[in-house]
What we know:
Elements: H1 3-11, H2 15-36, H3 40-57, H4 67-85, H5 111-119, H6 123-134, H7 139-146, H8 150-179
Pfam families: Sigma70_r2 (PF04542), Sigma70_r4_2 (PF08281)
Organism: Flavivirga aquatica
Family: Belongs to the sigma-70 factor family. ECF subfamily.
Amino acid sequence: MSLNQLIEDCKVDNTKAQGELYKLFSSKLFSVCLKYSRNHTEAQDNLQDAFLTIFKKIEQYKNKGSFEGWLKRITINTVLQRYRNEKVFDIINENHVEDVELEVNEEDISIDYLLQIIQDLPDRYRLVFNLYVLDGYSHKEIANMLGVNIGTSKSNLARARQILKQTIEEYKTVKHSQSL
């Protein structure tokens, strides 16, 4: 069955087609959820919520642009809605934090460790970092998605980079001292 036929069948609430669509895209969308969630369990919950939203809104997909991109946008927005509802961004009014360069040498630090420390960032910093650095959204887009102002987005990104840089430097110092 073609993807277009699968989409059309999902539009008429065909549960078998919905199951096939889930099988086809759940692992990719779970990766998106994991990137924006606090942990594995929350990512699973977010994936389920995203698919409920996808099936509810699938008739809005008009076969224009990438279907996978459409799914990813809905998934990200579903996760971000949870954070907006939790008011993660309400109490944040940080002064502009100096932006830092964050360079990672793959010989010094594993990708798994890097992903873990990104995952460990406070919610507001992790979300902005992922949206800006990993998914390429602009600060204006992030501000709209999160319901914050552009300055808050920039400040949260700078703070995320500072925390990551500090964590990486501490890790490298410990690793270096262990190798002596």
